[in-house]
């Protein structure tokens, strides 16, 4: 499980020293969401993603990205990524041989 703060452009600002692969790919995830949603991001939105093409590392890594606004202006993003052993696969662990 990893957490970080990102600027309004999706660049990493600060992170806790957790899983390096999570933190290395999370900026790409935040930027992908910013490029995809753009002006459609609103206060109160929470984005959940695990798609590898959207900056994810692999399917069991689920990322929650929350844009933070001040007076209607996007100020920064909070993001957290956790590895889940079971996300609904056909066998326990979601990673059958």
Automatic annotation (TrEMBL):
InterPro entries linked:
Hydantoinase_B, Oxoprolinase-like
* GO cellular component labels: cytosol
* Boundaries of every Hydantoinase B/oxoprolinase domain copy: 1-97
Domain of life of the source: Eukaryota
**Annotated GO biological process:** glutathione metabolic process
One Gene Ontology molecular-function label: 5-oxoprolinase (ATP-hydrolyzing) activity
Stored PANTHER family:
5-OXOPROLINASE, 5-OXOPROLINASE RELATED
Q: What is this protein called?
A: 5-oxoprolinase-like protein
